[in-house]
Amino acid sequence: MHCVITVVVAxxxxxxxxxxxxxxxxxxxxxxxxxxxxxxxxxxxPEYRCAIVWGEKGxxxxxxxxxxxVEFPELFKKYPWKQPWLDVHPDQTDTxxxxxxxxxEQARGTLVLSxxxxxxxxxxxxxxxxxxxxxxxxxxxxxxxxxxxxxxAASAVxxxxxxxxxxxxxVLPRRGxxxxxxxxxxxxxxxxxxxxxxFSDERLP
Length: 205
What we know:
This protein is 24% helix and 19% strand. With 205 residues, it is an alpha/beta fold.
């Protein structure tokens, strides 16, 4: 199989939406021992709530939800802290509204990929897909060094914790259509349309 993505999986930096950012990979257990914080921020789409998770090392997660700002089941499942960790201004009573937050400069310039070595290779591969283009799951598996493991690559794509920044929305099923997406196929279409890619729900035979 010929790989259509050229990627240096050991690269320490990547370009994300026109900005050079540092990439840090670590095992998932490491994040539980760190002092991570959480806040709502302005969403790229008004109908979706957006929450981020960050710490001293960088940005750990971006989550979207249509169920109201306090309902991010995947976020709380991934980061099950015992203490409330909502970061809002003292006079901020509506937790569904975006708030101004102070994120350390280091966090703004670093993406922390917490996953298995294979997951991290897949996520680095996603960072190499240019805006306005897409790839198939088999392409991602090949570029990540496991050409036959397209199902595992699809699972890793689905587990991407940094929506939009690590562009898992640019991976599509070869049979046609936009395929599934953790936040729903509608938001995936919105992300693709924002980059000039439009798809119907038609599938190839």
